[in-house]
Design a protein that fits this description.
alpha/beta; Chitinase A, domain 3; protein biosynthesis
């Protein structure tokens, strides 16, 4: 993540990440002075997560819904129809933050990157992990706050 990349978060997700950061910092401060190999691995993983959360929080846009213009962008609840007819609804946002039980796709994921900037009715394709391609059509794009108000 770069310093100029803005990260869309709900207020709840922002607070959840702050709590996780506080917990991780406390656990690191309480670490044993002479850790074994396993404890060192755990500390490195915690430090990596601390860095990731810190960057997200520093670049966060909190609770500001994107415009309701039907364009897929972070902070939008997206409904897509796959070429086989199945539909899926998900939040285009940051993985690793808490959004309840809603599925989250990052704008950096293959599907997220393909759908980013698409307009309702537009079909896009993206590469699957196995190397084949899949197509989806953007059916609906609604700001998270508006979607949440409807449920």
């Amino acid at each position: 993540m770069t310093a100029t990349q803005r990260v869309w978060l709900t207020p709840k997700a922002y607070e959840s990440l702050k709590e996780e950061l506080d917990t991780l910092n406390r656990l690191c401060a309480e670490a044993t002075p002479d850790p074994d190999e396993n404890e060192l691995a755990i500390m490195r993983a915690r430090q990596a997560r601390i860095q990731q959360i810190h960057e997200m929080l520093m670049n966060a846009v909190v609770g500001e819904d994107p415009p309701d213009d039907g364009v897929a962008e972070p902070g939008m609840v997206i409904t897509v129809r796959y070429d086989d007819g199945d539909e899926e609804t998900f939040l285009l946002g940051v993985r690793g933050a808490e959004y309840g039980d809603m599925e989250v796709y990052s704008p950096q994921s293959p599907l997220g990157a393909a759908i980013l900037g698409a307009r309702v009715g537009q079909r896009v394709t993206y590469e699957l992990p196995n190397g084949s391609t899949a197509g989806v059509t953007l059916v609906k794009a609604v700001p998270y706050g508006m979607h949440n108000a409807d449920t």
